């Protein structure tokens, strides 16, 4: 019997009627999480290109002024959307920290001329 990946542990202790409602909500969560992964992948593609541009032109990996403006903007958007602005700030800072780490790595090991736009292949990493 194949198990529904949406069921999780709840299947063991939730009544069937409530379980059906929970599964419907989890279907939406699955779609949203998939969209988040795709959105993040696109964002990192763009930031990798920025990292290459910065390395080529000897620009610093981080731009605190840009970060401040972007965080303020996203906190405003979060408040309008009834999302906790402090959570939005933490989430963005978490992503930016990773981007800057990549930019440092790119500046230390710039891509070869033969392969300037090659995406980093996370899937082949251990
Ligand atoms: C992507 C950039 O590099 C860094 C990462 C940022 C981000 O992920 O939003 C913003 C500013 C920089 O510290 C950039 O300079 O635009």
UniProtKB/TrEMBL annotation:
Domain Chorismate mutase: 16-107
Protein's name according to its UniProt entry: Chorismate mutase
Enzyme Commission number: 5.4.99.5
SUPFAM superfamilies cross-referenced by the UniProt entry: Chorismate mutase II
NCBIfam families associated with the record: CM_mono_cladeE (TIGR01795), PRK09239.1 (NF006691)
Top-level taxonomic group: Bacteria
A GO MF label: chorismate mutase activity
GO biological process: chorismate metabolic process; salicylic acid biosynthetic process
Family annotation (Pfam families): CM_2
Organism name: Nesterenkonia natronophila
Region (Disordered): 105-126
Keywords carried by this UniProt record: Isomerase
Family matches, as InterPro entries: Chorismate_II_sf (IPR036263), Chorismate_mutase-related (IPR051331), CM_bact (IPR010951), CM_dom_sf (IPR036979), CM_II_prokaryot (IPR002701)
